[in-house]
Amino acid sequence: MPTTTTNRILYIKPRSKRNALFLLILGALLLSFSFILNSFLFSEFKIQLTLIMLACFMVFLVGLMKYLEPKYSYCLTPTTIRFIHRHGQWQLPWSDIVRIGTVAADVHGQHQQLPYLGIKLINLESIANSISPRLANKLMHEQQELLRLAKNNNQLPPNNETINFSPYSLQHATYKGPVAAWLYRSEQLAQCYGFHLFIPQDSFDRDRHEFLALLKQCKQYTVT
Question: Are 54 and 12 spatial neighbours (Cβ–Cβ below 8 Å)?
Answer without folding.
Answer: no
